[in-house]
Specification:
The structure holds two protein chains of two kinds. By secondary structure, chain A is α/β, with parallel strands linked by helices. Helices cover 21% and strands 23% of the residues of chain A. In chain A, helix 4 runs parallel beside helix 5. Chain B is of the alpha/beta class. In chain B, 41% of the residues lie in helices and 16% in strands. Classes of the chains: A alpha/beta, B alpha/beta.
Amino acid sequence: MSQIDLFNTVSRSVRSGAQQGPSSENGHNNNAQATTTQAVPTTPTAPKTKGTTIAGTMHATDSALDSDAAFKLKGNRVTMTILELYRYDYKSFNDTLATTVNSAPDFFNQTPVILSLEKCAPDCYIDFIELGELCREYGLVPVAIRGGSEEQSVSANVAGLPKLPAASMSGKSSDIVPDASAALREVRVEVPVSANKLITTPIRSGQQVYAPGGDLVIIAPVSAGAEILADGNIHVYGPLRGRALAGVKGDTSARIFCQSLEAELISIAGNYKVNEDLQKEHWKERIQARLEGNQLVIGPL
Amino acid sequence: MAEIIVVTSGKGGVGKTTTSAAIGTGLALQGHKTVIIDFDVGLRNLDLIMGCERRVVYDFINLINGESNLNQTLIKDKRIDNLSILPASQTRDKDALTIEGVQKVLDELKKTYDFIICDSPAGIEKGAMMAMYFADRAVVVTNPEVSSVRDSDRILGILQSKTLRAENGGEPVREHLLLTRYSPERVEKGEMLSVKDVEDILSIPLLGVIPESKAVLSASNQGNPVILDEESDAGQAYKDAVRRLLGENVEHRFLTASRKGILSRMFGGR
């Protein structure tokens, strides 16, 4: 029952690897440590039991393999459908549901939905058990409610539906009008934000591409006179002829990978090599570049 | 549905106007109603290469400013029925070109023409930007030397970011590589970049390779598009390129020294 709330809690810190078990005291991963710590105060609704587990796991680590824990809690974001309820009575709900589902019969197949009560009158009585059964009949599986009055939350809780925070926190959602032709009918509950950037077209001379806060992946050539930058790693699946700067905000663990080293300049966290030096070894070869101390090392991949 | 093709390069002197004239003429010869627009406002050249410089009354800028109409401004080619030329102004500069003005003229031309060839000026300034802005396809003219290839690369980047198609986020501008002034002998000696080198760097489909040829200069001086010189290798290469532009699958010629050698002996002295 508390899982959705928990899910929502952890989803704020995508990379946090909260973990139970004896090895959880090893504080290797500073990132996870930081994000987990941050995540907890922002979620006052976090359920007591597991919430404290996370709060207690200040020294989170990713080394799941060397622990004998049965599971590990991980943050993630998923896209979910929202059923926005305006009012509830058996007949009208049944009718609307039938019309909706019949217009796209294959679309709803054990589809989890979140019931949004934000547009519903606070004093509207909703029989969540009945509603749940109706939904399941049509292939929808209610997993949680969002918004709604105190009374509604209590009766939802009785029906096994936990309450999520109101929609204003999770950004915009758009109306779903399910019809058989429309491809996109889902509403993003939590917009998945990946800081990584993927480029599939050639980066030409004079162009500059920057991936702030993540990796830059390029599946095309990078021309001489082009500049590619990333806070994280840089991958070029093609010849790298321009300038590549990884870890531009100082991440010394960032690396640069490319299929053919023909670069004008390669730099990791400010430590660089220019074309003249690069030509001396591994020229036009598949390489990876990384930092050893302050030394930029280029080796075969 | 009219197609707008920009002939561009970034670098000057690589053969944009020669190519515009040849491709425009070639398309018209294939029966397509074609107009070539000279975007090189202030340095008008196209009319010279097309041999119609003495018939220029009004120009592109007059048309944009509404000082003349299409009929008055377009110059009909005397050799080919389907071909017209829209000359550039000699007395103005490129600031006279505006997006709205260019669009107005192109919209008008689209009603009657199958192909609109935009002969871009060199550089990446306003004239070049205007020439490529509305393009559906681009012929990127490149010489087999590093600076020309670098400039073409720059232009390709601009084509994919600063054109109407790029701004609308729809189908991008279709790019074609045209390698001009190619000399297989010099490639073999290692003095010149090979077709493969250039294709490798620019990674766009090859429309054609035009061999270095004396026919080009003499054709320009006579005001005859080189494509009309059916005996010259350059003329034939342009013809092949036009067919490829129209979607035909034509094998590339004039790529190796030996074949070029035979041909230059056959058509020698040109």
